[in-house]
Design a protein that fits this description.
Oligomer: single chain
Helix content: 10-25%
CATH superfamily: Cytidine Deaminase, domain 2
Order of helices and strands: EHEEHEEHEE
Radius of gyration: 16 Å
Shape: globular
CATH topology: Cytidine Deaminase, domain 2
CATH class: Alpha Beta
Strand content: 15-25%
Largest sheet: 7 strands, mixed
Bound molecules: tetrahydrodeoxyuridine
Length: 160
């Protein structure tokens, strides 16, 4: 038997401690919560992706009466970024959640499907993507989406 220990480092910053470029990305993600279409859950998720060309691509969750047809903010945003700028790495993705009249106090982290898509974005460009999760209590930062999905399924697994 072998036991593998997998460690992830998550840095928790106060908003004021963020670099200006990251603070501005968080501001944009917070604004984007107001563009969510979420009549079923009332849970607004805003996202902002910073690309290597300086462009910021934004998104928000989009729900549907046929529930599974909806899409999370992270995937709305990354698919739009990758569709419009297929050769440009995504350097950072900021997320914010808003429900019941306020930003969430505790951290909400991305769902499994979104983590998988984040990982693919990192892999296709060969560059780590910083992920910043804003909540009232702090800004949770991982330097790479891979940190959110250890022991993941990637393209190389198809080639064995
Ligand atoms: N949602 C996101 O946008 N991102 C996530 O990572 C988790 C959940 C959305 C989907 C749905 O519209 C609402 O939040 C409640 O699940």
């Amino acid at each position: 038997m072998r036991e593998l220990q997998i460690q992830t480092s998550v840095k928790v910053y106060s908003y004021d401690e963020l670099e200006p470029e990251m603070a501005s990305l968080v501001d944009t993600a917070k604004k984007m919560t107001q563009n969510a279409y979420c009549p079923y859950s009332g849970f607004r998720v805003g996202a902002a992706a910073l690309l290597a060309n300086g462009q910021v691509v934004t998104g928000a969750n989009q729900e549907n009466a046929a529930y599974p047809s909806g899409m999370c903010a992270e995937r709305v945003t990354l698919f739009a970024a990758n569709a419009n700028y297929p050769d440009t790495p995504v350097l950072a993705l900021a997320l914010a959640c808003y429900t019941k009249g306020h930003f969430t106090h505790d951290v909400s982290s991305p769902c499994g499907a979104c983590r998988q898509v984040m990982l693919e974005t990192e892999h296709r460009f060969g560059k780590p993507m910083k992920v910043i999760l804003y909540c009232e209590e702090g800004c949770y930062v991982v330097d790479s989406a891979a940190d959110l999905l250890p022991l993941s399924f990637v393209a190389e697994n198809l080639e064995q």
